[in-house]
Amino acid sequence: MQIKNEIILASKSKVRKEILENNNIRCKVITSNIDEEPIKQSLVNEGASPELISKNLAEIKATKVSSSNQNSIVLGADSVIDLGGEIISKPTNRDEALKILKKLNGKKHYLISSVSISKNGSMIWNHTDKAELTMKDFTEEELKKYLSKIPDEKLYAYNVYQIEGEGRSLFSKIKGDENTIMGLPIDKIKEYLQLQWKSI
User: Does residue 187 have an active-site annotation?
Assistant: First the structure.
C-alpha cells in the first residue's frame, strides 16, 4: 500500500534523491536495473531524437518498477547529452571520460532530462526539459587535471561533469534550470504530484 506523499524513485542517482528530499518529497529507491545501452542504440538506429530517447528510457524505468509495486507512484528519469544530434553516453572508464570532454571542449551542447511517472505498470505523466551549456576551451592537460579531482562513482554516474560541484568551472555559459542539468526538473514534478496527491 502506498504511503501518502511518498514515491518510489526508479534511479540509483544520489543527486536525484537529494533533489526530491530537499523539496520535501519522501521517496524510497528501487532501481529498474535495465540495460540502457541496447535500448538507446536501437532508438538511435531508428532515427529517434535525443528528446525521444531520453523520454523513452525514463518511461521504461518507471513502468518496469511500477509493474511490481502496485498502487505506488514511481518516478523514472533519464538524462542525455546532445552534441549536434550525437548522443553522448556516460563513460565507463577514464579514457572514455577524457574523450567525451575533448569532444565537448569549446562547444555548445544540450543536456536533456526526462522524467516519467508510472502507476500499476502504465505511464500517467511525463515531462522533458533541456538546458544549453557552452564549454570553455581547455588543453588536454587541463582536462586531465579536472578528471583527476572527480572520484569514480561520480564520474561514471553524472555524464563526466557535475554542475553542482567541480563541473561548473568547465563552462563559459549555462542556460537553463540547474535541477534539469542535475537530472531532475523538480518544479514540474512538484506541480504534478501536488495535483496527484489531492486526488488520493
Answer: no
